[in-house]
Amino acid sequence: MTTDKIEVTIRIDKNGARSLGEVVGDLKSQGLEQVQSHERFMIVNGSVNPDALDALRAVKGVASVRQDAAYKTQAN
């Protein structure tokens, strides 16, 4: 059974010494896909397996990881 990926919004610590690019690289290495980074707001969006949330939270420079609300239509 494949696990559906979940959409997440990741807030980057503005006081961190690391560049957004470095943090994004580490997030990708932890399984983040379909990455969109918004340097102006220090936010990264993407999708990831639910079991990788703690790994994303552990990345240096990450302030928070929040699962986006998903509304899917049910298949008949």
Structure, explained:
By secondary structure, this protein is α+β, with helices and mostly antiparallel strands. The protein has two helices and four strands; from the N terminus they run E-H-E-E-H-E. It is globular. It comes from Rhizobium aouanii. This is HMA domain-containing protein.
Proportion of residues in helical segments: 10-25%
The number of distinct helices, counting runs of at least 4 residues, comes to 2
Provide the gyration radius in Å.
13 Å
Please state the average pLDDT score. Answer: 90
- Please report the total strand number as a whole number: 4
Please provide the ordered H/E string of secondary-structure elements: EHEEHE
From the spread of the alpha carbons, the general shape counts as globular
Distance between the termini: 20 Å
Assembly type of the chains comes to single chain
Spans of at least 5 consecutive residues with low confidence: none
Organism: Rhizobium aouanii
Protein name: HMA domain-containing protein
